[in-house]
Amino acid sequence: MTKGxxxxxxxxxxRSFSQLVRLQLILIKYLPRGRFIxxxxxxxxxxxxxxxxxxxxxxxxxxxNWLTHRRAINLLTDEPSTISWIDKFSKNAxxxxxxxxxxxxxxxxxxxxxxxxxxxxxxxxxxMVLQKNIExxxxxxxxxxxxxxxxxxxxxxxxxxSKENFRIGxxxxxxxxxxxxxxxxxxxxxxxxxxAETMDSxxxxxxxxxxxxxxxxxxxxxxxxxxxxxxxxxxxxxVSIEIMDQNQFYKSIDEVLVQAGxxxxxxxSSDTRNVIYRRL
Length: 280
Hints:
about 40% helix; alpha/beta; seven-stranded mixed β-sheet
């Protein structure tokens, strides 16, 4: 059998197989509830779970794409200072996770330290996976999703999505102004309208959820969020904030936190993105 003949047979086989699959899908569509069957098949395909073991605890994460899978398997290593910081929380504390994404750190804090967690996440792309992760790890009574943006004022604002990261688990979203994690303009975007709150307005409504610890990971919106949090910052014990050295608002962010009575502390870690402020 010549090489050319083998290639031709393989090509015919592959084309026939593709046509057979296509025919089966067409037939399923015309069956009673056929379209729902296709939806169920799609959910099964996209419903992959990734398991992460940490000591005696095993975490489960819904990972419908490569990015959510990467977030799961790198839970303990992507931001080691965040994990180390959460490990030092007081038991049963209240933790605000601002920029929760799909909930990796919200769930870690709820499981490891029995925290009551408020997960702030405005991206509709991440909310379903966030909820599934909460259910998979059985922390429905500990993690509260607050699906709005945080800012320096209350109102309806535009949420900008970086086209490069427009996927489940994606980051680099910006509320109110298209700005990247360095504080510079973001040009290639999709956008939608979302309700916005301030930290202080949230606390006014839910006084029983005053935070002991706050994590802020919002890719360039740190200053606006802190400017809407004067009352909260006067009460919180510690804040961990992801801020790049190149961020043009770095100095102003530091000033707001210091004026609130928080001091920057140095942690020994290879993760230099996150800065911790503590009330001494």
